[in-house]
User: What shape does this take?
Amino acid sequence: METKIIEHSKAAELFIKDEKRTDWHNETLWFVREKRDKAAFQIPDWELLRETASQIKNNVLSNMNQYLIDFEANAKNNGIIVHWAADADEHNKIVHSIMEKHGVSQMVKSKSMLTEECHLNEYLTEKGIDVIDSDLGERIVQLRKEAPSHIVLPAIHLKKADVSETFHKFLGTEKGNNDPKYLTEAARHHLRDTFLTRKIALTGVNFAIAETGEFVVCTNEGNADMGVHLADVHIACMGFEKIIPQRKHLAVFLRLLARSATGQPITTYSSHFKKPGEGKEIHLVIVDNGRSTQLGREDFRSSLKCIRCGACMNTCPVYRRSGGHSYHNAVAGPIGSILAPNLDMSKNADLPFASTLCGSCTNVCPVKIDIHVQLYKWRQKLVKEGYSPKSKTLMMKGMSAVLSNPVFFNLAGKMGRFVLEKMPGLVSNGLNPWYKQREMPAPPEESFREWYQKNSTASKDKNNEQ
Amino acid sequence: MKIGLFVPCYVDQFYPKVAIATYELLQKLGCDVSFPMKQTCCGQPMANSGYEHLSKDCDANFIANFAEFDYVVSPSGSCTLHVKEHLHDEKNEQLATQIRKRVYELTEFITDILKIETIEGNFPHKVGLHYSCHGQRMLHLAQMSELNLPFFSKPEQLLRGIKGLELVSLGKKDECCGFGGTFCVTEEAISAKMGQDRVKDHENQQVEYITGYDMSCLMHLEGTLKRQKSPIKIIHIAQILNGL
Assistant: This one.
């Protein structure tokens, strides 16, 4: 699904053309943000909980190598087969090799943003493997050959009628029946058969515990468990930043995760996997794919604290009005915009600019990543490394020259006000993006400094003396 | 106590009344305030666009203008924040650091430094208070809706003494207006939509005025209101506090 990237601003413009849908999308996500507020504010120590989670993750980032070594040793002791993948390609090859080893060409897969990041589905499909996503939202977008638009709510960009249309086309449901119960039931039947026949199940990982070598997968639908328990082989894929030191730390993260994500006290299923059942196998693929580079970037390393709750997306006024696909990255929204440039600066140079730097993302983040600060810093880095259009650089140089020099500044200000007054057509036209939907300010007769020269206490005193 | 009035460049050129109100208000509150004539821009437009390295001349000019003052006060949260976070001087970093610590947004200067609880006045109108993001979330002029912490609001506290002023409660208490500096042209579609949505929230409460402590956001909302030929007017908080 390697398609041509459309810049965020252009994609957003297209999204917004359907204003009613944009309003619906905005309010739907805002509803989730409000649910999050209600759930979070029921915990008096919410801010302390966030701070605690943040400190635990800081500790993990500073001791990553040791925790990974411990985790691997403990997992191996438990009978888990551990694989290391340097990048997306190696990750995909490892997963495929496990399938080949078992002679299996079908897989059931629960939600894993890492496999989206690695484009595993496309890779396996090319190799002739039939992959079925078992998370309902993931399944819907998979049928439509779309990417998830949100890390927690993959099909949040779709309305009931869109899902009905998709199911009618692919699952043979009644045309025009938008009843959510009916549609969910149809999906259940469709997936039930998948669960019963698949020998290999793949899941993501929410938390990997260094102390015990076990890992935890959180879902609301129970689809990860259903897939894993009915399969002979469980493949779990994780970015290495999923490590937490001890099992007791789960008490912090599980309380934060679902409250931040959907406003639930906890995910319906928080499944612990420690060792394979009789005659079964658990494979764990630990992936780097740019994470060690990000860990080495002092300004951006804390982005690896992310627990993928999606709260920053739900609160982001830009995300709510542009949809997840406008970010052309597996992880969208504010967190995606600080992760994506690490993976590819050239492809993702637009994303840190897709923000007003309002800072709401930073405030909802359960692990206190300073997202808006990193957006600002990515802007500086991208410009310095040459990923900014030449025209913009020229304009900025011009602005800097005028705005830093008192003489130029006064002259430009006078000219600007003169133009607005006498020749408004020069700026109030279609070439000025501001003017497309907004009026220009009315030019005053004089600037403040002109007024001040005549009217300030100091100048009045002077005049009186004369 | 000598106070340097830092007037954002666009306020100087387009909204002189806001700067006049700020100047007069500070004088009424007993401050020795003056406006250094050679000030220009704080450099934020370049910095937020990724060109912080091009704002060095702005920094130097800012320092030259404001070095002599005990406090620097500005009727803008955003510009104040930029100076507080990004003002540097390779030749005299100590001086730059001092100025960074001395710069205050107008309402926080009144409540925190002048220790004035509230200001008496008269403004018999229904008003919506727009919490501009930089002042609120970064300068902490008011509590933020995302945090589970006690309410406070420096601008609201000051407005409480204004007779007849009815402050409405908005649907989204502290949603960004979409201005965002150069964002308003580089992401025109989203920016304009955010402005329209912000205006709608105020309209739903039937306000006569939208006020705030940041003229840039108010300019954005004004541009949107005027395009829609709305009767709602914008007014900077300094103008209300100064009795217009």
